[in-house]
Write a structure and sequence with these properties.
Elements: H1 2-21, H2 25-42, H3 48-56, H4 58-71, H5 75-86, H6 91-108, H7 113-125
Helix pairs in contact: 2-3, 2-4, 2-6, 6-7
Length: 126
């Protein structure tokens, strides 16, 4: 009987830890976006990685699309979502990959260099 209580207590503890460490759907979408950005960078932004990834993860991508649509376009909703994203464990990696992509855009579109630099600066300050 004593062992049964110990096993039950350990199981409950494990489930509690697991539920606390489980990240939100928004965080999962942020991780997915990071993975796409990184894969594209590694393929020199030729679009092949994203196409294959989208085919393999269609359901997850649809779920994320719905989350972003719910976010809306009003500033308050966008700010709330941004705050939630900052809480995600993979947010820093997302920012790093986003900055690398912007730097690539800057090489391709030197005329937009000033605006891109401003976006990079803003991302790094957040």
């Amino acid at each position: 009987m004593k062992n049964l209580k110990l096993i039950a207590l350990l199981g409950l503890g494990f489930m509690t830890i697991q539920s606390c460490s489980k990240e939100s759907e928004l965080c999962q979408c942020t991780d997915m976006a990071t993975e796409i950005l990184k894969g594209e960078r590694e393929k020199n932004y030729d679009g092949t990685f994203q196409k294959k990834y989208s085919e393999d993860h269609k359901a997850e991508e649809e779920k994320c699309k719905k989350i972003y649509e719910k976010m809306g376009t009003d500033k308050a909703s966008m700010e709330k979502t941004r705050k939630e994203m900052k809480e995600c464990s993979g947010y820093d990696a997302f920012v790093d990959e986003s900055v690398k992509q912007l730097e690539n855009f800057k090489k391709q579109m030197p005329s937009m260099s000033k605006e891109i630099d401003e976006s990079i600066k803003q991302m790094r300050e957040e």
